[in-house]
Amino acid sequence: MTLGVSDTLPHASIDVLPLSDGGEGLVSVLAPALRAGIRTSTVQGPLASQRVDAQWAMTADRSTAVLEMASAAGIMLVPEARRDPRFTTTYGVGELIVHALDAGASHILLGLGGSATNDGGTGMARALGYRFTDSRGCPIAEGGDAIRFLCHIDSSHVDRRLDAVSVTAACDVANPFFGSEGATMVYAPQKGARPEHLELLDQGLKTLANVILNDCGCDIASLPGSGAAGGMGGGVVAFLHGRLKRGIDIVLDTLEFDAHLRAATIVITGEGKLDEQTRHGKVINGVTGKARTAGVPVAAVVGTADTIGAESLQSFGLADLETLTSPHVSVEQAILNAATLIRARTGALLQRLAQP
Questions:
Q1: Which residue in 29, 42, 268, 349 has the fewest CB atoms around it within 10 Å?
Q2: Distances (CA, A) of 146 to 59, 60, 87, 122, 152
Q3: Quick one: average pLDDT of 278-289?
Q4: What CATH number does the domain containing 317 carry?
Q5: pLDDT exceeds cutoff 90 at 22
Q6: How far does CA 130 lie from the centroid of its chain?
Q7: 166 φ/ψ angles, rounded to the nearest 5 degrees
Q8: Residue 123: which CATH number?
């Protein structure tokens, strides 16, 4: 984007500010602003047999740890042929939290998003000492498929250091835990779940919500955002006693976005796909909300978009839009040539906006 601006307006002053809505990239975006050092820990990946190197950040005063769920349980860590939320787990996220506790963190910021899982955060909780058993008192298996057999949650062996830690989860959706708009029905198909698996996975999260209510005294069933990241939003509230907050708001506030806006003539932003989900906590939604208040126009370069007319474009808060895909450029071609296309589309966008 920067090169595209320079190509078209060589004398423009460019303020580059990478953003994240709480998913992938949260650590790299916030670490410089928080003066936090990047660390790497080896933890379990989303597959039981997998070990991955997950990056996280710790502030210099050792008070705040920034973690990304995607680095330990992300969908990009699972080969496409093996993606199946019946068996993937968030256990590695719990291990990351243990590393943060070992480092002395008193506050944990956990980015939700980009997950390969649908286990309601049970894997994470298991790594922290929670025990999940069936009607015979036997431990249930890892993954979303086994949750429907859950009867009891034992919290007597939980890491007591959690009592002194505040946890904030950055999420970009408001979906409830289960149901037609819940974690499974809306997001599990894109994680590899087949249509015949959806009812059982959703039943598992409903069962988990009921057992959490009975054994933990926490009602997460219809809590907005509890369905984020395969139910991890609800898991954060139930097992970590954390709170959910829009990820883009956390990032914009931390980076003092309003101050950057005061010097801006135009903002150019983007994302993979512009669609109805964009309106609910995504980067573009957060940026346009702030920019509208400041009276600064926003344009976007996106990978692809649903059919967008002028009226619909305005409803997204955008002055103009460019997509990498076109009748002559497929999604696959756009991915392979993303950098070149982003540069060209940014230039084309500015040329249009600069016309009287």
A1: 42
A2: 37, 41, 8, 10, 13
A3: 86
A4: 3.40.50.10350
A5: no
A6: 24
A7: -95, 140
A8: 3.90.1510.10
- Cα separation of 36 and 254, whole Å? 13
**270 with 338, same domain?**
yes
Give the whole-angstrom CA distance, residue 172 versus residue 224: 11
What CA–CA distance (Å, rounded) separates 132 from 220? Answer: 17
Query: What rounded mean pLDDT belongs to the chain?
Result: 94
CA dist., res. 322 & res. 345, Å (int): 6
User: In Å, how far from its chain's centre is CA 253?
Assistant: 17
pTM assigned to the model: 0.89
Q: Which of 128, 114, 117 is nearest to 239 (CA)?
A: 128
Supply 344's token pair: 């060209």
The residues pairing with 36 across neighbouring beta strands, listed in sequence order, are 59
Q: 118-132 burial string, b = 16+ CB within 10 Å, else e?
A: bbbbbbbbbbbbbbb
3-state secondary structure of 300: strand
What are 73's two structure tokens?
């349980």
Spatial neighbors of 45 by CB under 8 A, at least 6 apart, are 51, 52, 72, 73, 77, 78, 92
Domain containing residue 67: 26-248
Q: Can you spell out the DSSP letters for 270-336?
A: --SEESGGGGTT-HHHHHHHHHHHHT--EEEEESEES---HHHHHHTT-SEEEES-BTTB-HHHHHH
Distance CA 117, CA 94 (A): 14
Residues 6+ apart with CB under 8 A from 265: 296
